[in-house]
Amino acid sequence: MTESPDSEYVRVLTIAGSDSGGGAGIQADLKTFAALGCFGLSAITALTAQNTRGVAAIHAPPVEFLEAQIDAVMADIGAHAVKIGMLHSAEIIRAVARAVERYGMSRVVLDPVMVSATGAVLIEPDAALALASELFPRATIITPNLDEAALLLGRPIQTADEMPAAAEALLRQGARAALLKGGHLPGDEVIDVLAVSGRPPVVFSADRIATRNLHGAGCTLSSAIAAQLAQGEPLIEAVEAARLYTREALIAGAEVVTGRGVGPLNHGFAPRKTRTARLG
Q1: What is the 3-state secondary structure (H, E, C) of 52-67?
Q2: 201 in Cβ contact with 177 (< 8 Å)
Q3: Burial (0-12, 13-18, 19+ Cβ within 10 Å), 84
Q4: Ramachandran sector of residue 174 (left: φ over 0; alpha: ψ -120 to 50; beta: rest)
Q5: How many CB atoms sit inside 10 A of residue 34's CB?
Q6: Cα 194 to chain centroid, rounded
Q7: What is the distance between the alpha carbons of residues 86 and 189, in angstroms, rounded to a whole number?
Q8: pLDDT tens across 53-77, in order?
Q9: pTM of the full predicted structure?
Q10: Is the CA virtual torsion 135, 91, 129, 87 positive or negative?
Q11: What is the 8-class DSSP label of residue 121?
């Protein structure tokens, strides 16, 4: 009889859509987890026919099958953190919310994917309300870009000066913390704002990277935050480390040609050994 193991992989579950082009969604999430030393698990919410130029079609499996995927993973393997991405219908959102409660998921990063980098709307109209009511209170942090925040708040965010108030408005919708990403604003500087309940907003800034290869950057950032949380990093430090990883992945892939549209990041520019943690 072999001895019981005394360690386990640090594991992160992604609940998100699949990108057949490999740059975003489940594919970007799993690449990010692996690059940051985590063992990735997945539950697919939707299949997309997608490439660097856009989304041609979306197919969602039955919600019961999504629940079966989550149950299979969590009942046997479990996860130290969870990243939630594309949830295009209210029914799917409610199913994921039930799973978060059922398994006591405590480190949850919600990327409210509503609009792709190529401009395609990826969510049904009634799902935005369900996101706020069902998942915002259950998430450790949400990570909308400006277009997604505008859909959630019902108003555009047109300048960097408006971002702290917008991030705090997301807290009033039920989020415990919100990282509002400002990459869609023009200019040589990119501003992100982190609002955490009970604290003043934190403003991050960085020089803009000259590249068209931005597909999956939001998925990568939220997955990197989840990977850092899974390894025990506090929230603000997890966000800082995730921003640095995403920036370096953008720089590493800035001049690589993939497809004829918006290309992907280089997730594997400096992969780490898979981390383990002691059982219990």
Answers
A1: CCEEEEEECCCHHHHH
A2: no
A3: buried
A4: left
A5: 18
A6: 15
A7: 28
A8: 988 998 989 999 999 999 999 999 9
A9: 0.95
A10: positive
A11: B
